[in-house]
Amino acid sequence: MSHMTYLEASVVGLIQGVTELFPVSSLGHNVLIPALIGGSWASDLNVAAPESPYLAFIVGLHVATAIALLIYFWRDWVRIIGGFFSSIRDREIATVDQKMAWIIILATVPVGLVGVAFEHEFRVLFGKPIRAAIFLLINGLILYAGERFRTKKSLAADAELAAESEPASAQAVVADAVMADSVAADTRPAHGAGRAGVAAHASGQRAVRQQEASRAVQADRRLATIGNWQALIIGSAQILALLAGISRDGVVMVTGMFRGLSRQDAARFSFLLATPVILAAGVLKVPDLTGPLGNGIHGQVLVGSILSGVGAYVSVRYLMKYFQTRTLTPFAIYCVVFGLGSIIYLSVK
Questions:
Q1: Is the separation of the CB atoms in 268 and 100 below 8 Å?
Q2: Residue 169 CB-half CA count within 13 A
Q3: b (16+ CB within 10 A) / e for 140-164
């Protein structure tokens, strides 16, 4: 593994950060791309090799990805973690934050147990490029089916959210008009105009953050009603992501929509569920990277981690807005095309 270059580490780190949250499978891409490039990439970055340090490297990057998620959702995690401790103190699960804490714990248990017990077997059996390509194709079909066969309850949840957002959109238009007036005023010479513009901008930013926080609380109120059994079913879908090519966020979103969640709430729940799983997986691999397997690549790990964290943060910001109005279908098409193309290329290579 001492032959891993900074270019390889940079590409893998950025791919990990972006594809971990996009519903296109980070592990599938990190298995396929080195094989498709070939040469030293295929030998240096072989996830299925015995005692593969590359697997420790890409899973270790999960720590950076999880930190990015924690930064983006930090207000939510403060509430949820507070709900966990208050539920223990009060010996009850009554508030929204308390319910969310235990729903996330319950939904995380299945993939945690299976991952610890069978991670090595999954890697050896399914970490081959051709199999990753097949599962990526299957992932695309899962995403397409998730959109094509939405339940009436999930569609109704989308319609309800759209109706609720109309008043907020109207308020946003008014706020934009006020901001435009402030900018126009700034262009006219006047004593203190610059300070007024800065104050108006800061006020607008605070309003946006408050609106986002309000939406998050409302989303958690809806998610807290799904119940323990539903949470267990949705969380168990993460087990499929142990197969290289199957997206954790994708299958969780599809399962959530199948159980009646709106697309937006399913996306939020998938990101919240991913945080402890990704963080735990990364932390478990840190000893490998600090031990003999990590000799000679500590600098590459640092570079890859920085790019992974930045890519993850930008991705989650984009996707949280994207899924407010758009679908999984473009990602489904991408997975089918890339998966099928990889199968053909690897078969005739």
A1: no
A2: 7
A3: bebbbebbeebeeebeebbeebeee
Q: Identity (one letter) of the amino acid at 197? A: G
Give pLDDT tens digits for 134-161.
999 999 999 999 999 999 999 999 999 9
Chain centre distance of CA 26:
10
Q: What is the dihedral of CA 253, 254, 258, 260, to 10 degrees?
A: 20
Give this prediction's pTM: 0.86
SS3 224: coil
For 16, phi then psi, to 5°, come to: -60, -50
Q: CA–CA separation, 225 vs 313, rounded Å? A: 28
SS3 20: helix
pLDDT in tens, 56-110: 788 778 899 999 999 999 999 999 999 999 999 999 999 999 999 999 999 999 9
Q: Are 272 and 247 in contact (CB under 8 A)?
A: no
User: What's the token pair of residue 333?
Assistant: 């098409």
Task: List C-alpha distances in Å: 263 to 71, 108, 211.
Answer: 23, 20, 19
For 44, residues 6+ apart whose C-beta sits below 8 A from its C-beta are: 1, 3, 4, 5, 8, 34, 54
For tokens 């390509």, the residue is: 133
User: How many Cβ atoms sit within 10 Å of the Cβ of residue 5?
Assistant: 13
Q: Report d(CA 335, CA 37) in Å as an integer.
A: 18
